[in-house]
Structures are given as structure tokens and as C-alpha cells.
Amino acid sequence: MFYFFRSFGPGAIFRRRLRARRMFLLPCVLACVLMVWSCKNKEAQEPDDKDIPEVAVVPVEKPVVGIALLEQGTFYKEVLGNGKLRALKKAELRFRISELVERVYVRNGDRVAKGALLAETDRFTYQKRLEQARYQVMRMELEMKDFLLSQGYAGKDSAQVPSQAWQVGLVRSGLRDARHSLLLAQHDYESTELRAPFPGVIADVNVKDHNTPSGAFCTLIDDSVFEAEFSVLESELAALRMSQPVQITPFAQGSESFSGTISAINPVVGENGLVKVLARVPNRNGLLFEGMNVRVAIRYPVPNQLIIPKEAMVLRGTRTVVFTLEKGRAQWKDVRVGEENRSQYSVLEGLQPGDTVIVSGNLNLGHDTEVELSIP
Predict the structure, then answer these.
(1) pLDDT tens-place string over residues 174-216
(2) How far, in Å, CA of 244 to CA of 258, rounded?
(3) Contact (Cβ atoms closer than 8 angstroms) between residue 75 and residue 337
(4) % the chain with pLDDT above 70
(5) Please, are residues 337 and 313 in contact by the beta-carbon 8 Å criterion?
(6) Which of 91, 132, 299, 332 has its CA 20 to 30 A from that of 243?
(7) Which stretch of 74-78, 108-112, 225-229, 246-250 has the lowest confidence by average pLDDT?
(8) Model confidence over 98-117: pLDDT tens digits?
């Protein structure tokens, strides 16, 4: 009875209703909590406009370019070649006798005049031979006088002695042979000294004092004028002529160019289709050296050409482009070039005389880009 009253009495009914209300209210409370949390989080994520920092706007700088006015004029085409310098006068000097070198008077790089003493060998032997040859000539001259006396020509001038008798006396007395021996002795004695046959600069000295030379003593180079030997293609021969001006530039970094003229064109075409050419160049300020590697440029004029500097040309893929300046903006122009030299192109199509060509600051330009001129 008690169990029945507990399960179905008024208290049981009240308890069941209370549990039902709790089950209904719990989801509602949870939903309200989530809504409140969501609103707070949204407020935290969306600050007021006053909290947003201002972004600084940086102005875009205009590209700075250099310009040049395109004009029609004479374009100088170039035939280029590489070569070596050779001195017009060059000699390997050596002693004509094999003796110990007593004294060397020069070093590499010394500049000497014609006839300057370069070195000398031991002279003792050759000096004695010269003295002996002179004594022999004196003795044979006495023999010659005795012969003439025996022939009845005593006291007469040699011009009054018949030629035939004079020649017989030279042979019988031995005076002719003695004089020849004197000349040889004099030559050998002079050979103990080595002198410069022409003015120039000393190179390749390979003998020192108190040594016996085994080959050439030194090389003497006349460096006042050089010849550049180079080769050109057979197809370029038509542009060459004798005495044509050339520009010669040594490969050495920072070297200046020298003016010269063509001095010889070898009339033979080699196996590789090359022709040897010589160009003579004065050695201004002594800056050129024997055997120096040089670059040779032969220029000849082509009139009535549109000429642009190489700096104006820009390669975009397979296209050759030049930018011109029009109303403060860079304009893209496709061009076709003809000849070129070391610093210029001749333009065949794409530009007109009077165009303002951009020659610097053009590597990263685009079409119709607003630019600013550089201040010279």
C-alpha cells in the first residue's frame, strides 16, 4: 500500500512534473549561454573603427631615363680581327767569338743608342794577336823594300813602280798575307766588344759577368714602330686597301687605342678562308710591347644611316626593341637593325629621324610607362 501511494500519489505526480520542467529548462539555459558568449566573442573580433590603424600610401617613383635625338648620318662599319705586335727592327745579338764575358753593361729594359757598348769579353789573347799581326806587317814592309831595291826601284814612290813589279813584290815579300792577317786580327779584337747596331730597348739578357755565352747574348728591339699581324675573312677583303686607317687596342685591361695604317695585305687565302694583313702603328708613349696581343678594328663609312647607340637596344625574347619618349611616356618600338660596330647599330625599320630614343634606364621599362628625364 505504501509503495502504491509513493508511486501514484500526489507527491509522485509533483516530482514527475518537476523533472519534466528541469529537462525542458536545461537546453534553454545552455542556448542562452552560448548566445551570450557568441556576442562577446564577436565584439572582441570586430573592434571599433577608431582602433583600425591608418595605412600610409607610398607614391610610385617614375623610372629615370636618359635620351638621345635620332639623326641620320654616316655609320662606320668595322672589320674586326685579333693579332700580335711585331717590331719592324729586331735582332738577336751574340758574340762572334767564344770567350769568357768579363763585363755586362746592360739589363733588360735598358734603352740604348746606336753603337752603345753592351758587353765585352776577355781581350788578352786577341790583343796579343793584333800586336803580332802589326809587327808582321812592319817586317814584311821591310822585305818589300829590299825586293824593290833589288829590282832597281830604290828611293822611288810606289806610284812610280810598275804595277806588275809591285804585285810580284807583295807576293814574294809576304806583305799581302801579312796585311790580310792584320785585318782578321783587328776584326777579332773588335769582336770582343758587343755594340748595338741600331737604337732600341734591350730584352732577354741571358749572360752574366764571368760566364761564357752559349747562345744569343740579348735581343735588341726597335720599339718606335710596330706591325700588327692579324687575319680577316676572305669576304671582307673588298673593304680593305693599302694605307687604310685602323684602330689597335691591346687586350690588357684599361689600355688605350692606337691609330695605325694597313701596310701589307698578303695575296693568299689560307685553308680556313683567312687572309693575313699587316698594320703599322707608332708606339705612342712607349706603351706597346713586342708580342703583345691586340684587337684590330678597320673602319669604313656607310653614308645616310639611322644610328642608335647599343645601349638603346633592348632584347625582349626574340624581338629587338627600342623605347622612344613621347609626351613624357616610353613607347615600345619594334626595330630591325642592319650593321653594327663596337658601340652603334644602324636601323633599317621601326624608327624615324627626329625620334627621341631612350638610351639609359630602359631595361625594365614597359609600354606607355610614365618616365622622368635624368639630369645630365
Answers:
(1) 888 999 999 999 999 999 999 999 999 999 998 888 888 888 8
(2) 14
(3) no
(4) 82
(5) yes
(6) 91
(7) 74-78
(8) 888 999 999 999 999 999 99
For residue 128, pLDDT over 80 is answered with yes
Residues contacting 300, CB < 8 A, separation 6+: 76, 77, 79, 239, 244
Give the separation between CA 157 and CA 74, rounded to whole angstroms: 81
Cell matching residue 181: 792577317
- Separation CA 43–CA 50 (nearest Å): 14
User: Rounded to the nearest 5°, which phi and psi values hold at 142?
Assistant: -65, -40
What is d(CA 252, CA 84) in angstroms, rounded to the nearest whole number?
A: 13
Cβ neighbours, 10 Å, residue 260: 23
176: left (phi over 0), alpha (psi -120 to 50) or beta: alpha
Say if residue 4's pLDDT is above 50.
Answer: no
What pLDDT sits at residue 61?
80
Q: pLDDT at residue 2 above 50? A: no
